[in-house]
Every structure is written in structure tokens, then in C-alpha cells.
Amino acid sequence: MKTIRRIIFNNDVKVLHGNDGAYSEINNSSLKCKFLPPVEPAIIVCVHLNYRSRLDELQRVQPEAPTYFLKPTSCINSHLGEVIRPPGCKFLNYEGEIALIVGKTAKNIDIAKAGEYILGYTIANDFGLHDFRDTDENSMVRVKGSDTLGPIGPDLAIDWDYRNKYIKTFVDGEIVQESNTSNMIWSPEYLLTDLSRSITFNKGDVILTGTPSNSRPVEPGSVVKVEVENLGVLQNTIVEGTSSLLTGVGATPKDSDHIRSVSLGSDNN
After folding, report:
1. 130 part of a folded domain
2. Which of 163, 214, 215, 220 is most exposed by smallest CB count within 10 Å?
């Protein structure tokens, strides 16, 4: 399987081409490099609910069609990057996901040909800062768009087949999410086809395909890993932010029954 990795090595950005996540340029484990996101998207679109287990957990009825929200590109993070929980917040949730990477300009495409527009896939963790959910329920701007909340990587897999693959999330070594892509309601091809009716996608743009049940809050110091079969492992560490949110302007972090119902899921019962 062909894979692509972007790194910073000796202050230079390097694009590595390998197989199955192995790269001859960095086969010496003593070499220190910084991971970069495998692509630089102009657009990031996320589907709200796409795993049956998540629908059941939240006691939601399957919608007639997928619903979506946008993440700003400024929230993009990388493998081994730190994810910031701002001071005063306590509902920062992990969401292990698979990210579709667009391969060429896609507009009003035919679903039968959607695969021709997919460059490949990578791993994502669609962290959500649910302390702002009461005010951002519809837009999700701060919930899902705050800085560092969009890790993707470490590799872009070109020939990976998403069908019937396990997806697992770990917190400090313990499995907290576990499912299979066969439990998706809408396929990646369906999502790209649907969205292309309204949005023109270009090479490198990203579509996040949803998370299974058991998204839960994590604390500073926690190490979160998302593992996808034959795709690799994305790892990030949660840190406490050093700058307090300004008061007197805009929404402040909240704790409410609605926030807890989403952030804690079935644990809130």
C-alpha cells in the first residue's frame, strides 16, 4: 500500500513516499523529525452522525440524509501534536474517525465514479470542546473549530480499502471506542457525492466520516490514540492551556444537562 508522510527535518519540509508507512529516508530511528498533517486542506467538512452505535447512544433517529458541519483549517493538528484544553473547560471529548482525502476537483459527481475522486484516507480525531455546545449547537464553530482540535495523520494511504476495517480509540492504553467501518450508515463515496452537489472540492480537501459510540471527555496529561486497521495509529497528548479565555466578550464555558447528555453519552444516565 502506497503511503505519503509530511515531516519537518533539519528545518525543511519533506514529503516522503513509502509503502505501508515505511520510508527509506527515515529508516534510522535516531533521526528526529516533527510530523506534519499529511495534507493541507482548504476545506474540512464533517458528518454529524454516521455510526449506528452513536445514534443509538444519543437516542437519535437516523436522519433522512447526512447533516454536516465545517471545521476551520486553523484547527488542523498532527500526529504527536498537543491538543489544548482551555482553562475553565472540562468537556473536551475525543472522537476517533477516518478522513477521506479528495484527489481532484469534484463538483456534482456521479456516485458510481466517486472513487475516482478519492486520493486516499488518513486517521483523524475530531476533538470537541462541548463546554460551548449550548451556544454553538448549530454552527459547532468553537466546539469543533478551536485551535489544535483537528489532528490528522500520520500517513496518507493511497490504496487503502475502507471496507470492513476496525477503528479503535485508546486513552492511556485503555480501549474506549471500538467499531467497524461496516457500521457506517453512509459510505465515504456517498458523503463526497452528496457534498459535491453544493461544494466544489479540490485535491487535499478533507471529509471526516463520523465517530462510533463512547466519545467521552479527557483530562490534561491523557494520551489519546486512534488506531485504524491497516491505516496506522494517530497519537496526541492533552495539555492544559496557559492562556485563560477573555471574559466580558462572547460565550463562556458552561455546564448543563444538554452538554452532559452529549459529552457523557450513556454515562450521564
Report:
1. yes
2. 163
Q: Residue 59 is part of a domain; what is its CATH number?
A: 3.90.850.10
For 172-223, write each residue's pLDDT tens digit. Answer: 999 999 999 999 999 999 999 999 999 999 999 999 999 999 999 999 999 9
3-class DSSP state of 229:
coil
Residue ranges making up the domain that contains 191: 39-242+251-268
Grid coordinates standing for 140?
459547532
> Does residue 212 sit in helix, strand or coil?
coil
Q: Is residue 4 part of a domain?
A: no
d(CA 95, CA 153): 14
Give the closest residue to 93 by CA, choosing from 184, 216, 186: 216
In the three-class reduction of DSSP (H, G, I as helix; E, B as strand; rest coil), residue 225 is classed as strand
Identify whether 29 is part of a domain. no
Task: With respect to residue 26, please indicate whether it lies within any of the assigned structural domains.
Answer: no
Whether the pLDDT of residue 6 is over 80: the answer is yes
The predicted structure's pLDDT at residue 247: 72
